Amino acid sequence: MSITSIAHKLYFERRQRELQKHINHGAELQQDVLKSLLHRADDTEYGRNHAFSTIKNYDTFCQDVPLNDYESLKQDIDRMRHGEKDILWSGQVKWYAKSSGTTNDKSKYIPVTNEGLQNVHYAGGRDTVAFYLMNNPKSKILDGKALILGGAHQTNYNLRNSLVGDLSAILIENINPLANLARVPKKKTALLSDFEVKRERIAQETVNKNVTNISGVPSWMLSVLLRVMEISGKKHLEEVWPNLEVFFHGGISFTPYRKQYEQLITKSDMKYQETYNASEGFFGIQSDPEDKAMMLMLDYDIFYEFIPMDEFGKENPTVVPLWGVETGKNYAMVISTSCGLWRYIIGDTVQFTSTNPYKFIITGRTKHFINAFGEELIVDNADQGLRYACQETGAEVMEYTAAPVFMDENGKCRHQWLIEFAKEPEDIAHFAELLDTQLQKINSDYEAKRYKDITLQPLEIVVARPGLFHTWLKQRGKLGGQHKVPRLSNTREHIDQLLKINK
Prior knowledge:
Helix content is about 35%, strand content about 20%. By secondary structure, it is of the alpha/beta class. Strands 6-3-7-8-9-10-11-16-15-14-12-13 form a twelve-stranded mixed sheet, sandwiched between helices. It has a four-stranded mixed sheet with strand order 2-1-5-4. The longest helix is centred in the N-terminal third of the chain and has 22 residues, at about 115-135. It is globular and about 60 Å long.
């Protein structure tokens, strides 16, 4: 009997049965979570200020606790970082995830409590494996090594045993030592801050290991795997790691990278499973390999609320709990967690595809969209459009960003796309036409603004030189970890910086 089958029976089968409650009891699970969070935080400063001990139901919670963004909690978080106890959560919080959800210079420091580690982040990792084994009962994933990419951390305000850094580094630093026996690279390597040095060492340390599964952000993982291939001299990754089964990916959309992975890993039974984990929490797992939507995880230390995007930014927007969401509608996600985030707007947008169980897709960021002319273009639209254009032309996209051109010297307005291709199409103009046409098909607002070229002219594509986005991130000290390129922007700040160095 394999190690995987033993672990499955002893550890994962019970959890797989518990996960069935997500199907018919989602609202009950969430109400229990809210009650538990309020009870455990009622003697904190925030809990006393908002009368947590008197809150009996969701309606009272909405009345007594305001919506928050990072700015509204920043002062409390900074006090916590200086060592103060019982502010947003009970006790002293020693770990802070340095958020890399955006690429501007202003960092966010998200508290990571012991409860958050165990009941959110590690719970998500456990359930990712539980779902995978449920769908692949003959798997031997635990009989080999897991290649897990991590970030780096540093001392927090020189406080003893208090650190800030990438969430992945926090998870690696705190993981059960027994788990290190089943993962690569070495902890010291995984926590290196220089991604280029780390990439080389990871490749050297793992090329001769029995790697059965890989986990990380698709862009950074691809960079590591390509170096593994260079060292090994092999043509395909399964020649290096013949027992490789699955890539657990998250952080950014997998769509632009899928074809490159399929060329790198040609075995027909290779699996890909998406997760939705962020500095603020672990939210979703792809539970069905035939369905790209993810299951919203409802029994962690996270209580969810949602703001319809057509009301986002209003002074008093409608906010609904899980049991108030509708399928096919775009929502900004709001969370309350055992890391001390209360009614916190995390900046991600989602759309539900099912409400029994609650399954969703990530549609973008509240700040990563283009709506300069009323076109309401979101990241999910962009990914779909690029996928279609690539399928039709055989092109492959590595990285991209897009922004509006508000008016050129001829008084014309359009969207400008800066795209780094792994395989450039033979005819850029044709690729641009296909992308533009597909965006009109999937977004009626964009179609209306493109009507007869009256408001928006055809989009423009600028081809990025190889490695442009890598260079840009490196210049900003944001290589590796969970750092990512903003796909869409309503301003030209990022694209103008990139165009300046696109030589």
